[in-house]
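Bench notes, afternoon.
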Amino acid sequence: MSMQTKLSTLWIFVTLNTIYCDVTGFQDSDVLKQYLAGNLGGLQMTQGFLLASAIYVEIKVSMVLLSRLLGTARTAGRTSQRAHS
């Protein structure tokens, strides 16, 4: 994988994380107040809940990174196998 591809993949990963953070941060002011109070529409916002939510979102965002990195590695492996045949 070229350095340019690696850098663009990491840039996509960072951008998706930033977009998610911005979307969450720019919500309706009433919703933001509920977040800060730790109670969102009757749902208690505990540290465990926030951790689980962060992991859930990060798995989805990481799939972009993994699909690009693993897809390229798998393709490179097939190409080198064909060259040796």
